[in-house]
Amino acid sequence: MARLVEYADRMGVARFCVFMGMDWNYEPTPEKFRQENDEVMQALSHWHHRAFGFVYLNPQYVKESLQELDRCVSDGPLVGVKLWVAKHCNAPELDAIVARAAELRAPILQHTWLKITGNLPGESTPMELAALVERHPEATFICGHTGGDWEQGIRAIRPYRNIYTDLGGGDPTAGLTEMAVRELGAERVLYGSDIGGRSFASQLAKVLGARISDEDKQRILADNFKRVLAPILGAKGITP
Amino acid sequence: MSGQIIDVNASLSRWPLRRLAWDEPAALVAELRGLGITQAWCGSFDALLHKDIEGVNARLAEACAASDGFLLPFGAVNPMLPDWEEDLRRCAELYQMPGIRLHPNYHGYTLEQPVLAEVLRQATARKLLVQLTVTLEDERMMHPLLRVPPVDCAPLPGVLTSIPDAQVLLLNAVRTVPRDLLRRLAVEHGVYCEIATVEGLGGVANLLEDVPLEQVLFGSHAPLFYPVAAVLKLKESALAEAQLAAVTMDNARRLLNPQ
Prior knowledge:
CATH class of chain A: Alpha Beta
CATH topology of chain A: TIM Barrel
Number of domains of chain B: 1
Helix content of chain A: 40-55%
Strand order of the largest sheet of chain B: 1-2-3-4-5-6-7-8
Low-confidence stretches of chain A: none
Distance between the termini of chain A: 20 Å
Shape of chain B: globular
Oligomer: heterodimer
Number of strands of chain B: 8
Number of domains of chain A: 1
Strand content of chain A: 5-15%
Structural class of chain B: alpha/beta
Radius of gyration of chain B: 17 Å
Number of helices of chain A: 9
CATH class of chain B: Alpha Beta
Largest interface: A-B, 35 and 34 residues
Low-confidence stretches of chain B: none
Number of strands of chain A: 8
Shape of chain A: globular
Largest sheet of chain A: 6 strands, parallel
Order of helices and strands of chain B: EHEHEHEHHEHEHEHEHH
Mean pLDDT of chain A: 96
CATH architecture of chain B: Alpha-Beta Barrel
CATH superfamily of chain A: Metal-dependent hydrolases
Largest sheet of chain B: 8 strands, parallel
CATH topology of chain B: TIM Barrel
Strand order of the largest sheet of chain A: 3-4-5-6-7-8
CATH superfamily of chain B: Metal-dependent hydrolases
Mean pLDDT of chain B: 97
């Protein structure tokens, strides 16, 4: 974490959001995701002034995921939910988790990717996220990686005002941010670094290099995520 | 940053699958100049799918000639086309290009096919630098009708053993060419690479652990990538002044003007 902060300082990143532990698992057992969340909370205990954390859950284990959500978010310091590739996100098992996250006012960051080479067995597409969101208009979602294939991902989530999109991950391909702003509005677009797979540099470039206004860059780099977190931070009495 | 940067990995004309903000030469030059880049080595996206390679190279040469020396042309050679040797000759003699750019995956040959060695031999005889593009976009999100896997560089050490004087610069190789192979190509065969596809925290510094400093160059992969990404990668790695100078300028200059 100290090394991460060192690079963040160099690149002008004041705060970041972390999740998942030191040893990632596609389908973590409850014991494993508890361990990963403990690692995140341990890191935050030293760096809470620089980072927020999301709880990592596995919808294959609904009961244990709900318990973990309460342990780490309701009763702990974490402020959102991270879902990765354990189960397609349009599955009914996610409903209870999403409903509880909405009660806690915790945003849900769902990894999405649309691969012509073939997705992982449980890996969600942005279309599947849209199907989940259709059932949960009360919750706040973040479409991880803008679906990877962003020209399709942006279209898939476009109708749903409670989905934000995360620019992180993938190459710094020109045009991504401009299309996201054009189709979703700048207020629904979030900067993400996707560290440690990517770099602050390549992902900041998606915002700093985009042909959008300085005001929109400010929204994407900071203001929008503050607004996403404001309800839960307010409920926890935390000043962003 | 000194503000003196040579970008060895840029392209002109249209990306086949979307319009790009900087796909007109004047717009590209303005954007790169604004980032402190003083020269850009350019191929043409037209070379990927066009069969009239001479037409592609003529337009590339014309666009570069109109840029007051900012854009330097690297013409395409497609050795799967009849009489490709004439394209190579024109790159060297007619257009006075410093090098050529190869796209084995788009042109449909592997590096173990004898024709690659022949291209390298003829280019080397003409003192042309050879840019070999490993990949252009993420294989996972390619258009379903234009799926082009990255170039497999495993045969390259064997090819270069027989042509030790060849000057080869790999484009978009980092993260795609296996780390051990890239190190071997650099250390044992003098191959160069550039930073456009470098990733990970402090990625350029990490690359310098594998590839000698003298063989790492600045590349942006503009206009397909936001070109500021490569500039920010230099900043993220906090390189020493001498390292920065080597990557951004000195190595490219030396490559164009060998002693």
